[in-house]
Amino acid sequence: MSQPFYVAPEQVMKDRADYARKGIARGRALVAIRYADGIAIVAENPSETLRKVSEIYDRIAFAGVGKYNEFDQLRVAGIRAADLKGFQYSRDDVDARSLANQYAQILGNIFTHEMKPLEVEILVAEVGIEPAGDQMFHILYDGTVMDQRDVAVLGGDADAISERLRDSFEPDLDLAAAVRLGVAALAGPDRELPNTELEVAALERRNGRRCFRRVADVEIPQILS
Amino acid sequence: MPFFEPGDDPGSSFPELLRRLGMGPDRSTAGAVDVPHATTCVALRYADGVVMAGDRRATSGNLISHRSMEKVVQADRYSGVAIAGAAGPAMEMIRLFQLQLEHYEKVEGTTLSLEGKANQLSMMVRGNLPAAMQGMVVVPLFAGWDQRREVGRLFAYDVTGGRYEEREYIATGSGSLHAGTVIKVGFRTGMSRDEAIDLAVRSIWEAADADSATGGPDVLRGIYPIVATVTADGWTPVDDDELAPKFETIASELRAR
Known about the structure:
The complex is a heterodimer. By secondary structure, chain A is an alpha+beta fold. Chain A has one domain (29-224): Aminohydrolase, N-terminal nucleophile (Ntn) domain (Glutamine Phosphoribosylpyrophosphate, subunit 1, domain 1), CATH 3.60.20.10. Chain A has 6 helices and 10 strands. In chain A, strand 3 (53-57) and strand 4 (60-66) form a beta hairpin. In chain A, helix 4 (158-168) packs across helix 5 (175-187). The longest helix of chain A has 21 residues, at 68-88. Chain A is globular. By secondary structure, chain B is α+β, with helices and mostly antiparallel strands. Chain B has one domain (35-256): Glutamine Phosphoribosylpyrophosphate, subunit 1, domain 1. In chain B, the strands form 2 sheets. In chain B, strands 1, 4, 5, 6, 7, 8, 9 and 10 form an 8-stranded antiparallel sheet that branches. In chain B, helix 5 (176-186) runs antiparallel to helix 6 and helix 6 (193-210) crosses helix 7. Chain B is globular, with a radius of gyration of 19 Å.
């Protein structure tokens, strides 16, 4: 009887992490930036129909980078979990932290137990009633959760982009300024991003019950000018 | 967090998701129960869309159980739903219906067509049939702005989930005969917003005047029927400040007779 070769657990984990990181690095990045009245999310996305950023609940948005079918499955699971919780208890009881923890459990489980880890990084953002209540959770392919305050960067080339963002971020920007900042950080010094390759959405603190708003393609040139 | 195999996925249906998780409606009750009932609601078409109106009373037999019930509610941005019948199941159905429209919109990334929404409600009413056999009848009205055809549309239902689109007006509940007759007599095609609201308000007044289960304007407590319009701009409730003088006009006309 043939026995499988022994592979050290450290090696298994390292191989899986490398595999996931490579998959994510191939995709394009997105940034989320807190501004005075909410959270702006700017993604580099050449598709007009397949979305990276979407609404989960009244004050919660989801964004994902990496393999589309994998983060889309997570997006739908998040909407289901949020709608179920709001139906069973109250709309006020649905929060980003609990969703982020559930996502972390799933990603962590798949990373350790399945053959192939998910090649995704996701962001769960919640806009508070007051600015102090804003929350952003950045969750990695292995289930690591990072709680981020002002800016979050997901996807390939994240280090360079976050460095650019950190240098130019200021608190209490308006939406247009936040979007411009995000686009500049995504593009970097050597390249210009065409408007058609941008996907922009915002969680607006005072947008009524449902805070999520997609910034339409026709609005983007106005904001950037 | 709920996950499903691709072949077993409930898709964008929230009620189906509830069933998969064993949280669907309970069908095991037997025998009739006496529950509060909600009554008269109407909807009619006018030049810019539709007007919906409903009284605020819920009754248990001869007793008034609630004075400020909201049976005409916004379903989503471009539609509203009004419900007459057993108050508990009716409110639950409205809640589930609102949630389903939003759930679909978020999962699919696009809203249901008005016809799709009307059919969805039809399925929910049909699902309530076993409860209706025990006296918990729920009969909704559905009205909204059809963004594809750019017209206001009205849908009436029966207990079995039968769906009937009407061109002029619809009415449901114990006072529907009186309210419907008022609208039938006063209806003209292409009325203005003001005329349509006047007619809706008068229909509720007449229903309240002749049907003990329908509540009129409660000036003492400042509770007025709920009236709202649905147009290309979406759902817009009509303020009590605008309704109060309209009821006052009707009252003074009656005093002068």
